Amino acid sequence: MLQVDLWKRVLIWMTVAVGLILATPNVFYNRVETHNDAVKAIDAGFDTTENRDAAATWPSFLPSGLVNLGLDLRGGAHLLAEVQVVEVYEARMEALWPEVRDVLRDARDTVGTIRLQPSATKGELRVKISEAGGIDRAMELVRGLAQPVVSLTGAGSTDIVVRGEDDVIVVSLSEAEQQAMDNRTMQQSLEIIRRRIDEVGTREPTIQRQGYDRILIQVPGIGSAAELKAIIGTTAQLTFQPVISRTTDASERPGAGNELVPALDDEGVFYVLEQAPVVTGEELTNAQPAFDQNGRPAVNFNFNPSGARKFGDYTANNIGSPFAIVLDNEVISAPVIQSHIPGGSGIITGNFTVEESTHLAVLLRAGALPAKMVFLEERTIGPELGQDSIDAGKIATMVAFVAVLVFMALSYGLFGIFANIALILNIALIFGLLSLIGATLTLPGIAGIVLTVGMAVDANVLVFERIREELRTAKGPARAIELGYEKALSAIVDANITTFITAVILYVMGSGPVRGFAITLGFGILTSVFTAIFVTRLLIIIWFERRRPKTIEV
Amino acid sequence: MRLKLVPEQTKFDFFSRPALWLGISAIMIVLALASFGLRGLNYGIDFRGGTTIRTESTQVVDVAAYRAALGALELGDVVISEVFDPNFRDDQNVAMVRIGAQDGEEAVSTDLIEEARLALAEVATDIKFVSVESVGPKVSGELIRTAAIAVTLAIGAVLIYVWLRFEWQFAVGAVVALVHDVVLTIGIFSELQIRFDLAIIAALLTIVGYSLNDTVVVFDRVRENLIKFKSLTLKDVLNPSINETLSRTFMTSVTTLLALIALFVLGGDVIRGFVFAMIWGVIVGTYSSIFVASTILLRLGVKRDWSKPVDTTGNQFGDIDA
Lengths: 554, 322
Fold this sequence. Notes:
Chain A is α+β, with helices and mostly antiparallel strands. Chain A has helices at residues 6-23, 29-43, 49-55, 71-74, 86-105, 108-111, 135-143, 175-200, 225-232, 305-317, 354-366, 383-436, 443-472, 477-509, 513-547, and strands spanning 68-69, 76-83, 114-117, 124-129, 160-165, 168-173, 206-210, 214-220, 238-247, 258-262, 270-274, 279-280, 284-291, 297-303, 323-327, 330-333, 345-349, 373-381, 440-441. In chain A, helix 12 (383-436) crosses helix 13. Chain A is elongated, with a radius of gyration of 34 Å. Chain B folds into two domains: 18-43 and 140-300, Multidrug efflux transporter AcrB transmembrane domain (Multidrug efflux transporter AcrB transmembrane fold), CATH 1.20.1640.10; 50-135, Alpha-Beta Plaits (2-Layer Sandwich). Chain B: Belongs to the SecD/SecF family. SecF subfamily.
């Protein structure tokens, strides 16, 4: 007959209680959020009384997990960037040139004179030797420069591939090295983006690698994607390069090993620079906004010891010649070296505004991005729109909720009320689950919850209709209830599994808001089956045990 | 006194005119496909690439003036539409501006948005861009592909599940009903030219789930009755099965519709298209589970003798719980 073991009852109520406790923080959203922010700040070392007070607004023994609000509800910016990983190959090859030059120069007897040739394909080094007969020896020498690749998949291979075409040696990166390098580039890009966004200081940004060469960046609370792009879109590749000449001819051929770089401030002015830099921004240890002796905004910087030594040596040997400070392929300034600069600190001047110099300092401090990024997708949602969406969603959910509750009560009377209690618990359980895994609630997610409110009663409806049918064949109330649950079970399971399958597919295939919808829909199915099969049943059984009705009306 | 949408016991004959119902569905499908072929879908930027800007100002939106202001920038394909919503404040005038993808650009540049802002500020001084969304052509192509895969996967997964749990005839009936619902939904979107974006795909998949939910409940009863009444003809089993589940079908559809209508009216204009798709899906899904899925099942016939061991390999899982 209608019996449920005590341990099962305890388990059901405990599950409900845990769900309710986990959902509680969302009722006090602002307080809990302040508490969480403060706790994080204290953990990060900002142990001020202010933060301590803020942390005390929510008791620490209670759970503090919240349903995160998605960008479409809170406002913020979303960017999908593609890292131009191939660009890095080029820089790598450029850096290899001096080494190749030196090793071949030592074997001048067999290979003759050497010359760097322009290459049509990027990331390839073409070196022409005058003695075609020495090509084998030359290739052997260059191969000697190869290093083993350090990666899991590329074990046993070396980093460069050397082949000969008549009197030209072509050096390119091996596939294993390319892969290993792509991975490094992505790791580094992620790290640097994270640092740059942290410098700006907003709440909980999401920075994720997506697919092979993409990065997804979501920053809540920022004004616009444009602002975010300005912070993370700049490569901030700083180099100090020797100047060969200055020109106004944009089509001038710089010659092998050199490059033509435009000036940042003077339109139409170009510099011919040696491609290999003396020192790069990677050797900077610090950068801060400052003012130069004329009171104009500038950026102060410091090198690490090896950078300082290189910088010092170069300035000592080249007094009187100009020296270019290049940022992202534009010459910021090209001062003439007045004297030896030891100690490894300097100042970058240019026509900066205070804002620009601050920005540049932030970028230099966070480090240069290894490769350029192309933005494939960007979305900005204003905070007002987000707030409007939340308000509209709240009202709609309340109205939908009340409508369904009233309708159920009118249709099934007391049993409808039981179903309604289960429905209320159901919503609490969804929020409990969402908070537990720290899921993000989006606008379609709210729609998913509202849809759940409508569909959650389905399992109960199936059972109640079954009980009605069984009552008609006059088996007595207890038997009717039991049979109702028994017979409806297979329909409930089948019907919900199919919807659950679609929710899973949506989650796997979808992105952003669609995912949010899939999560609430999927959880809604789990919790509604639980509440309908266990909670409502338990409620009915408890009622039945107390009253022992001879007849029931469903 | 209970509220009853459907009388306690009904004896409708759902199969007296199978040709009529299938005919109506066929005509609807043809209309939907024709509309899709002729008018196409009003793809949002998710699928087409480009930029959508949602503007807000206290001045009344003058679409012609907006168009003139933006026309000077030579942005190519620009669509401007005013947005109405009963929940807006009196001085809240909202418009959607859609700018097509620019030649050779992966995403619309920041400068372009700034230019648009300046141009529009000439017309409406306090104009604000409350949301700006840009999708590059590369990503939009991928989004279309993933969306198509998702819908196909969902239908395929469902086909397999129903096939394993029931019989292949049930699976065919269920999937025909699903495709029917999806096609009709796409048809209404192309006919009314409602913006079709990523969220609508989510709605489509939910419709797949919901419609199936209905169909499976009916089929479950059919399976049960097939075992109970071994001597009756398939039609005489199908009819009472649908009648018996009719009350439940309507109850669930009504509660779901109640919730969705609340969301449609009060949930704001941002998700209205999405909710509309689901409302339509619930209505069409309810219809199709009764008239399409079952009629197909009737046409295909179904193996009746459940007691003998099954020797065909295809449906060896079919009678696990039968």
